[in-house]
Specification:
This protein has 159 residues and is α+β, with helices and mostly antiparallel strands. The chain contains four helices and ten strands. The strands form three sheets. Strands 1, 2, 3, 4, 5 and 10 form a six-stranded antiparallel beta sheet that branches. It has a two-stranded antiparallel ribbon with strand order 6-7.
């Protein structure tokens, strides 16, 4: 089943944290990744008194169910050293499930597609880079990108 991930980090070696999480998704057979975006530098969102984030998206295939997938990404976060913190606060790594096939879920544990996907330029920009024709919940992601603030979202290597 096709799966999309959003990854973010704003502690330590941010690009290396994202690279490690991507590698762990494949090493642990959580997903076989087919497309990975560049890493983007993005200003903090939600809680502004923290450093810039590194963000990226990846698309691949998985055989896991939604809740197996959620457990697997939470294990990766924990194994990398993510500690509980305030909502939208600093984090070593964040691995979000953006979509999983055509699944739609909305409960306390998991919402698919990701409930804040269409409002986040730092997710939509890298997602459009690797899947410009993707349509989720009837909404083309390329169109959604034109409707959100992308101020400050730029490729990592552009500083």
């Amino acid at each position: 089943m096709r799966v999309g991930f959003g990854l973010g980090s704003n502690m330590g070696d941010k690009p290396a944290n994202i690279a490690r999480a991507l590698a762990m998704l494949e090493e642990r057979e959580v997903a076989q990744l087919h497309a990975v975006s560049r890493i983007y530098r993005t200003p903090p969102w939600g809680v502004l008194d923290q450093g810039d984030f590194a963000n990226a998206c990846a698309i691949g295939e998985t055989s896991l169910s939604p809740y197996e997938l959620l457990a697997a990404v939470k294990r990766i976060e924990a194994d990398m050293g993510r500690a509980p913190s305030r909502r939208w606060g600093p984090r070593l790594i964040d691995v979000d499930i953006l979509f999983l096939g055509d699944h739609t879920l909305d409960d306390r544990e998991l919402t698919l597609p990701h409930k804040e996907l269409f409002g986040r330029g730092f997710v939509l920009a890298p997602l459009v880079e690797i899947a410009p024709d993707l349509v989720l919940d009837g909404i083309p992601v390329k169109q959604a990108l034109t409707a959100v603030d992308v101020a400050g979202v730029r490729p990592w290597d552009e500083g």
